[in-house]
Amino acid sequence: MGAMGRPRDDPAGGGSRIKPALLQRKIGPQFCCGAQFSLRNHSLERNAVARVGPSGILYTSMSIRDRNHRGSGASSNGAPQMTSGAHPALEPIDAGASFKQKAYTALKNAIVTMDIYHSRDEIRLDERKLAQDFGISRTPVREAMAQLESEGFVRSVPRRGIYVVRKTRQEVIEMITAWAALESMAARLITKAASDDEIAGLRKMFAAFVDGKLRAHLDEYSDANIEFHQTIIRLSKNQVLIDLAANLFTHMRMIRRTTIGEQDRADRSIKDHMAIIEALESRATDRAEDLVRDHALGLAEHVARYADYLD
Question: What percent of the chain has pLDDT over 90?
């Protein structure tokens, strides 16, 4: 079977074949691996009826033992394991855009919202089942998978299927280092190209997190943190830089979500952001560039010291 070929239904083939179930209108509870699952607080629970919105997807994942032996065809003796956060909702496919583009967008959004770094399990995507649940042919799903593979989000394993990519610690550090170069240049350009109102908008993002409210709203701060860095790139008004940063930002988004609650990163993050905003407001070009670069490289240092789960 080729990398994009039809998956086998071989229970002894090693690893748990992913079982996505698109929860659409008029479809009742979904079953996976002989058990019912529910979506509650971003986790999968056995022995409960699935209760998800108009659309969603439930995945199983291959165990770490299977991952270590996936090239040898070793089988898994344990029950399929669930990956935390590996059940995001997908937008339904419709005819308003190309099926390939809709499938690509839905699958990419799903991968981005997964907590792929804190889990030791691998997540397998079943092309045939995805196409069936989307209600489209396998061709646009296969094309979407190929695009995601070219962008580093999935990888194809001959005779086994498609797996979501989990970057190594060194790969993550290299991505952050490249991001530091792009974002620091964006900050430099902001001091020359952005309006006062645009820069003021950066400060408004963090108004809700003053007076010790940060820890009580860490999820909301994580969203604001990601929006802040995305806006820094956009306000550079350099389209080449924006395009270069686009795919890298998606990988960075997953890393930032994973690390923001570790150690004292959230507290240090908001302090860094306030210093960056002050430099931008005063049009201190060199200082703004240095602060943004140091902020990003601080994340790389944190990953190098503490992110043992990436090994």
Answer: 41
